[in-house]
Design brief:
Blueprint: H1 7-15, H2 20-39, H3 46-59, H4 67-75, H5 79-92, H6 104-111, H7 116-129, H8 132-146, H9 151-167, H10 176-179, H11 188-204, H12 206-212, H13 216-228, E1 236-237, E2 240-241, H14 243-257, H15 261-277, H16 283-298, H17 303-316, H18 322-335, H19 340-344, H20 347-352, H21 359-372, H22 378-391, H23 394-411, H24 415-429, H25 437-447, H26 452-465, H27 470-489, H28 502-514, H29 520-532, H30 540-549, H31 556-570, H32 576-579, E3 585-589, E4 596-600, H33 621-626, E5 636-637, H34 653-656, H35 658-661, E6 702-707, E7 710-718, E8 725-734, E9 740-750, E10 754-757, E11 773-780, E12 789-797, E13 800-808
Antiparallel strand pairs: 1-2, 3-4, 5-9, 6-7, 7-8, 8-11, 9-12, 10-11, 12-13
Helix pairs in contact: 2-3, 3-5, 4-5, 5-7, 6-7, 6-8, 7-9, 8-9, 9-11, 11-12, 11-14, 13-14, 13-15, 14-16, 15-16, 15-17, 16-17, 16-18, 17-18, 18-21, 21-23, 22-23, 22-24, 23-24, 25-27, 26-27, 27-28, 27-29, 28-29, 29-31, 30-31
Family: Belongs to the adaptor complexes large subunit family.
Keywords: Cytoplasmic vesicle, Golgi apparatus, Membrane, Protein transport, Transport
GO biological process, one term: intracellular protein transport
């Protein structure tokens, strides 16, 4: 058989291929020749064939059939064979293939070889692809080489130990004695790999971190020697002595100094020296300065040192290299919360980055600019950010508009400025704003009573200029519907009023209804605005005509609105002025859940019963409905929470008419304007008879829940005259030393039952069993089935919210039979 071609000739041949198909043909032909050579056990050219196979593997072609040949080369006594064999093993094998276990014995023998270069090959291979089993078997040999005096082997053994620790963390302590003398080594390669090993051990074990903190002075001394040492051609990179080792030491110092005052104090001076003495004209120096800044920011450093670090980042912002500018912006964004004033000094430079051509830098600069906004610079920063919003790419507009909204809401110097700013955003980027921007702006306008005339005039002008921005059109339509009379009367004091007639206003709104640019939601806003103007304008007949036209619209939403508005004109015309009066002022109130809008009428005080001394009901509808899925499927009925009692319990049927008067949220239902027939439910018609039987004592009490000091007991009674109704009274007690506040008990039962949950006696369970919270549950069980119940408990204990679910299935038979 002729000798196979050399690797260099194969590379030259493959490079002459003009098409992918021609290259594949060459590769397949050569692979066939290599396979034949492998089958013939050709030892002479095995090394050359595996080398060619590795080149094909690098090109992306399959080379797995050469795995066993790599093992044969490793077992060879020739160094050239071993070198290619180990290289092939690192490229073609990994721990997912069982073949790699066959080379464990060869690696062990080579680790004890008399030639250091063979030992180095074995260490490299184990450190590259050794599995956890191999690492366990060979860790002893690696630890032995870590203690040798040969620098060449020690640096490779240190890196191999890093891989062993990653694979088998429990072997970490084996290498602890060997690490003691590593930092005293003069060889920079050994120092570098030693720092890598120490870093890995500190990151993986808190105990190791505490142990190695005593090495901080030694690390500081090594770093100082690197800075102060003269020119060394062996380690010099662009005039800086061994920057790779400096960076590694800085990273290790960052880990050792984190959350430790003594270690941080020991490294403050050297960090200041590195920050002030490092040359910044070359990228090498910038890399060291960046690591220094990260270390300063991560440890408990002095305030002056932190300012120095931020000033370094500020200089990075002026660098011509876009990567350095991006790194500086990202780092400043992380530190702006802790060192706000220091970052503020570089505000003008950060704002200039908004004009950068690189999109990544622009995005980071935008995020940092919003983080710098405060009450003192809101006007200037918003001016720059609104200018950026005008000219930025579409992918930035949504985030920028959202940021402007949040900043304006938090720091607005006046309501007029707030309204003008949001209108500017809607005018320039209305199509990109969040969904909640429309209701938020409407609420802001509603609450700014003195700005109504100014706002409606500005929005009307904006509507005449552009109707393509749908959020702007929706807000404008709403405002014109609410305050159209102010627009027509020309009562604006903030700027020169415009002369507008009623017909011109209606023309604009009708134009929105027929415009192709208007979304269905926008048309709904416009139709409602026209309807509202029927009580503010005198053109009622024209409005009637417009509304009647849309009673046959193909848009179901628009059609329903028009039909209902038509009914207002005809059947309920006497109620129309009251229904279409201006919206009352809306106030945002903080709550545990999403923000609620509480409406109050400024003219008359609503009559609200005094609830100051009544028990608090804290079971909103969403919490009650969360229990719907507790028992699975559609088999569950919701909790029905009663309102605060305003009549004594003897009222019987009125109190217990659940379907007529109660909602899932526990709020009082509005009084119906016309009589409504109410179906009987649970305990209707009991007002003339005592509520409970005298046989209640026959049903034994039970403990339904006992956990974390909270105990829930159930006692039972029978309702009279309906024996199908079980009345359960819960008694909640607290054995801990702190009160349980905001206590809420909820329950759910299968659909074959009906459940009514009355108001609790309190929402605070006193500590140390000094009192209890009681609550009554009524369960209708017409089919006499075994009672099952899921309960949900929420409360706050020692400042922390607690929530728990439990299933109660062990009800006494007397309670449901």
């Amino acid at each position: 058989m002729p000798a196979p071609i050399r690797l260099r000739e194969l590379i030259r041949t493959i490079r002459t291929a003009r098409t992918q198909a021609e290259e594949r043909e060459m590769i397949q032909k050569e692979c066939a020749a290599i396979r034949s050579s492998f089958r013939e056990e050709d030892n002479t050219y095995r090394c050359r064939n595996v080398a060619k196979l590795l080149y094909m593997h690098m090109l992306g072609y399959p080379a797995h059939f050469g795995q066993l040949e790599c093992l044969k080369l490793i077992a060879s006594q020739k160094f050239t064979d071993k070198r290619i064999g180990y290289l092939g093993a690192m490229l073609l094998l990994d721990e997912r293939q069982d073949v790699h276990l066959l080379m464990t014995n060869c690696i062990k023998n080579d680790l004890n070889h008399s030639t250091q270069y063979v030992q180095g090959l074995a260490l490299c291979t184990l450190g590259c692809m050794g599995s956890s089993e191999m690492c366990r078997d060979l860790a002893g040999e690696v630890e032995k080489l870590l203690k040798t005096s040969n620098s060449y082997l020690r640096k490779k053994a240190a890196l191999c130990a890093v891989h062993v620790i990653r694979k088998v963390p429990e072997l970490m302590e084996m290498f602890l004695p060997a690490t003691k003398n590593l930092l005293s080594e003069k060889n920079h390669g050994v120092l570098h790999t030693s720092v890598v090993l120490l870093t890995e051990m500190c990151e993986r074990s808190p105990d190791m971190l505490l142990h190695f903190r005593k090495l901080v002075p030694q690390l500081v001394r090594i770093l100082k020697n690197l800075i102060m040492s003269g020119y060394s051609p062996e380690h010099d990179v662009s005039g800086i002595s061994d920057p790779f080792l400096q960076v590694r030491i800085l990273r290790l110092l960052r880990i050792l100094g984190r959350s430790d005052d003594d270690s941080s104090e020991a490294m403050n001076d050297i960090l200041a020296q590195v920050a002030t003495n490092t040359e910044t004209s070359k990228n090498v120096g910038n890399a060291i300065l960046y690591e220094t800044v990260l270390t300063i920011m991560d440890i408990k450093s002095e305030s002056g040192l932190r300012v120095l670090a931020i000033n370094i980042l500020g200089r990075f912002l002026l660098n011509n290299d876009k990567n350095i500018r991006y790194v500086a912006l990202t780092s400043l964004l992380k530190t702006v919360q802790t060192d706000h004033n220091a970052v503020q000094r570089h505000r003008s430079t950060i704002v200039d980055c908004l004009k950068d051509l690189d999109v990544s830098i622009k995005r980071r600069a935008m995020e940092l600019s919003f983080a710098l906004v405060n009450g003192n610079n809101i006007r200037g920063m918003m001016k720059e950010l609104l200018y950026f919003l005008d000219s930025c790419d579409p992918e930035f507009k949504a985030d920028c508009a959202s940021g402007v909204f949040l900043a304006a809401e938090k720091y607005a110097p006046s309501k007029r400025w707030h309204i003008d700013t949001i209108m500017r955003v809607l005018t320039t980027a209305g199509s990109y704003v969040r969904d909640d921007s429309v209701p938020n702006l409407i609420q802001l306008i509603t609450n700014s009573v003195e700005m109504h005339a100014y706002t409606v005039q500005r929005l009307y002008k904006a509507l005449l200029d552009d109707i393509s921005q749908q959020p702007l059109v929706q807000v404008s339509s709403w405002c014109i519907g609410e305050y159209g009379d102010l627009l027509v009367s020309g009562q604006c004091e903030e700027e020169e009023p415009i002369q507008v007639t009623e017909d011109e206003v209606l023309d604009v709104l009708e134009g929105l209804l027929v415009s192709n640019l208007s979304a269905p939601v926008t048309r709904g806003y416009s139709l409602t605005a026209i309807m509202k103007l029927s009580t503010r304008f005198s053109s009622v007949n024209r409005i009637k005509k417009v509304v009647s036209i849309y009673g046959s619209s193909i848009d179901v939403e628009l059609q329903q609105r028009a039909v209902e508005y038509n009914a207002l004109f005809k059947k309920y015309d006497h109620m129309r002025p009251a229904l279409l009066e201006r919206m009352p002022i809306m106030e945002k109130t903080a709550s545990n859940g999403p923000t609620e809008i509480v409406q109050t009428n400024g003219e008359t005080e609503p009559s609200v019963p005094d609830t100051k001394h009544l028990p608090l009901v804290t079971q909103p509808a969403n919490q009650a409905n969360d229990l719907l899925d507790l028992l699975g499927g559609n088999d569950v009925v919701p909790v029905i929470q009663t309102t605060l009692p305003t009549k004594p319990a003897s009222a019987g049927g009125e109190l217990l008419d659940l379907l007529g008067d109660l909602s899932l949220s526990g709020g009082p239902a509005p009084a119906p304007s016309v009589p409504v027939s109410k179906p009987p439910f649970l305990l209707d018609g009991l007002s003339s008879q005592p509520l409970f039987n005298d046989i209640s004592a026959a049903i034994p009490p039970m403990t339904a829940y006992s956990k974390n000091g909270l105990k829930i007991e159930f006692t039972f009674e029978r309702a009279n005259p309906n024996p199908n109704i079980a009345v359960i009274t819960i008694h909640a007690t607290n054995t801990t030393e702190a009160d349980m506040t905001e206590f809420v008990f909820q329950a759910a039962v299968p659909k074959t039952f009906q459940l009514q949950l009355l108001s609790p006696s309190s929402n605070i369970v006193p500590a140390l069993n000094q009192g209890s919270v009681t609550q009554v549950i009524r369960v209708l069980n017409p089919q006499k089935q075994q009672l099952r119940m899921r309960v949900k408990l929420t409360y706050t204990h020692k400042g922390s919210p607690v929530q728990d679910l439990a299933e109660v299935n062990n009800f006494p038979p007397q309670s449901w039979q």
